[in-house]
User: Which sequence fits this backbone?
């Protein structure tokens, strides 16, 4: 098993720190009507927010951290790495579909749902192991080898 690079550990550790710092700083910049318990993080980066670039920037960096971690976390397996990367891309995509000041946005709802589901399910993806080809199994794109030319025959 390959070791996880130290930069991947740094991006994994930076993700929750970025999220908390982003919503804390952006929440502190909102007018008195903003309630961090009642209102969503999407409102901090959405239309009508005070300084939406603060939470928007935090979401972009957060999504990049998820994607970088997914690229290096080989021990987790391909299904979980794929889900983590999808969650990272969907987190960045939230900036493209901001929450409107009044009402809802179907596009924002879909992207937020994909992000939450992918980021919630990626640890379970480690249980899904893709079948691996045994080392001595013939590759599907190569012709069969005669018995006399195989390692055992040689």
Assistant:
């Amino acid at each position: 098993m390959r070791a996880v690079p130290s930069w991947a550990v740094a991006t994994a550790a930076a993700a929750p720190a970025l999220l908390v710092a982003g919503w804390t700083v952006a929440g502190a910049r909102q007018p008195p009507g903003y309630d961090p318990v009642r209102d969503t993080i999407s409102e901090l980066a959405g239309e009508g927010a005070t300084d939406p670039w603060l939470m928007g920037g935090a979401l972009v960096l957060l999504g990049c951290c998820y994607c970088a971690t997914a690229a290096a976390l080989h021990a987790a397996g391909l299904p979980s790495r794929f889900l983590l990367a999808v969650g990272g891309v969907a987190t960045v995509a939230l900036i493209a579909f901001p929450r409107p000041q009044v009402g809802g946005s179907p596009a924002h709802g879909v992207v937020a749902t994909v992000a939450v589901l992918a980021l919630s399910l990626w640890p379970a993806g480690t249980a899904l192991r893709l079948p691996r080809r045994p080392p001595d199994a013939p590759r599907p794109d190569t012709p069969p080898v005669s018995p006399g030319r195989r390692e055992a025959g040689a």
Remarks:
- The mean pLDDT is 85.
- The CA atoms of residues 6 and 95 lie 29 Å apart.
- The chain is about 55% helix and 0% strand.
- The longest helix spans residues 6-28.
